[in-house]
Amino acid sequence: MTEVQNPNSKTPTSNGPQAALAYSSPPALMTEYKEIETTVGNALATAARRIPGETPRLEAEILLAHILGQSRAWILAHPEVLLKPGKVAEFDSTLSRLADGEPLAYITGYREFFGLDFLVTRDVLVPRPETELLVEYALAAIGERRVAGDGPPFTLHASRFTTIADIGAGSGCIAVSLAVNLPEASIIATDISSAALAVARANAARHGVAERIDFKQGDLLDPIAGPVDLLCANLPYIDSDELSALTVARNEPRLALDGGIGGTELVERFLAAAPGSLNPGGMLLLEIGATQAEAVSATARAAFPGATVEIHKDLASLPRLVSIHL
To answer: What is the pLDDT of residue 30?
Structure first.
């Protein structure tokens, strides 16, 4: 049983498991709460005004749920529950970190991607929702899923027995998501960072696919011994000259962000080497920056003359994915 504060009494009463983590005294650290009771609803309202970005309320809900050890659904269902001072102070402290630009995933230690929870540390880039587009197209090409809108008009000849390589695997969100959805596929995941690969291995184990992903350390395609049916890559694509001025550079690993001059140096090296790593009829899927579609598609056509090269937009209608089908 968890104690809650009875609004009509100073004596705590036990109201069952749903009335978790409550207390009556407003904390000094949250100055906006000095004159009011610190309820879940009050905490969320104040937090949403302090968090920058496009989804402050959502981030506040996820953060408070993490601190209280509850689900987000529980948080939404219990706005009236009073918070203990220690929990309010902890919430206030972590809100300050969010306001300073620290990613929520580094605070909670996880991020949802493609319906799966992924462990996240400062050794890896935080998985982004736009990268789910790459996974959607991969599964659509293999015939396991349809993509809404301008889905790919092609399929891989290898079908469910596809051999896949994820280049620059980071947290493993792409490789693990594909492994979970393609139980008979053979998958290789590479990264130049041994620390990133350790996180990717942990995520593979977390989702029960560690035995089906071959993790290899090395630069781009160097660790790949032979050609595969599907190459996936989400490489660094931020211009070196612009990176230092961005908030993301203060918190996430530069190695996972810096794409060199123009942001396309690594992409160009990858595409130049990729033809020898794809089987006939194979496909390459590459995430790009929103302003790089023209330059990267030209590089792709030069590297793969005769192949079908297409640009696909994300949910924000920004160019986000290059597909190359042999």
So the answer is: 47
The contacts of residue 57 (CB under 8 Å, 6+ apart) are: 44, 48
CA distances from 180 to 79, 131, 285, 305 (A): 36, 16, 18, 33
Which CATH number belongs to the domain containing residue 14 in this structure?
A: 1.10.8
List the CATH number of the domain containing 298.
Answer: 3.40.50.150
Mean pLDDT over the full length of the chain: 87
Is residue 105, in this structure, part of any structural domain at all?
Answer: no
- Going across the sheet that includes 319-325, the strands are 213-217, 186-191, 163-167, 228-233, 278-287, 319-325, 308-313
Domain enclosing residue 217, as ranges: 110-325
Encode pLDDT of 210-239 as tens digits: 999 999 999 999 999 989 999 999 999 999
The answer, yes or no, to whether residue 9 has pLDDT greater than 70, is no
Task: Please check whether residues 229 and 128 belong to one and the same domain.
Answer: yes
Which two tokens mark 99?
Answer: 């306001």
The Cα-based distances of 5 to 9, 17, 32, 82, 273 in angstroms read 7, 14, 20, 7, 65
Regarding whether 208 and 85 lie in a shared domain, the answer is: no
* CA geometry: angle 104, 109, 110, nearest 5 deg: 80
- In this structure, the answer to whether residues 83 and 193 fall within a common structural domain is no
β-pair partners for 323? 285, 310
Look at the chain and count its residues: 326
- Region of poorest pLDDT, from 28-37, 144-153, 297-306: 28-37
- Give the pLDDT confidence of 237-254 residue by residue, as tens digits: 999 999 999 989 999 999
If one counts the domains in the chain, the total is 2
Taking phi first (over 0 means left), then psi (-120 to 50 degrees means alpha), and beta for anything else, what does residue 109 get?
left
pLDDT value of residue 148: 52
